[in-house]
Amino acid sequence: MSSYDDAAQRYFAAWNATGAELADAVAKAWIEDGAYTDPLTEVRGHEQLVAAIAGVHEQFPGFVFRPLGVVDGHHDVARFGWELIAPDGSAPVAGSDVVVLDTDGRISSVLGFLDRVPA
């Protein structure tokens, strides 16, 4: 498994974590001042990342993120697709992310794109 795959697995673990596990999962995935930007939000640092992810779980209770396709990468950059899966198995939200990794393989920044969103 590549460092890109490892980073993506930690990323999805963070997005799927809730409660007391969330802060630890974010710390494993992102560097301390790591950033996340998509069309709806822009946050930096573990505290803001935790709040943003918790907010998504409040908006979409019971949903989980799953990878869509393979992780591709070069140098310190990886990209991958994802879907947000509802409890009924549907996937009303999908997107793709580009992540920049530090020398330890943790995420320093994410640029997220929303490819499918509910009306």
TrEMBL record:
Pfam families (UniProt xref): SnoaL_2
InterPro entries: NTF2-like_dom_sf, SnoaL-like
Listed Gene3D superfamilies: 3.10.450.50
Residues of the SnoaL-like domain: 8-109
Name of the featured protein: SnoaL-like domain-containing protein
Organism of origin: Nocardia macrotermitis
Lineage, top ranks: Bacteria, Bacillati, Actinomycetota, Actinomycetes, Mycobacteriales
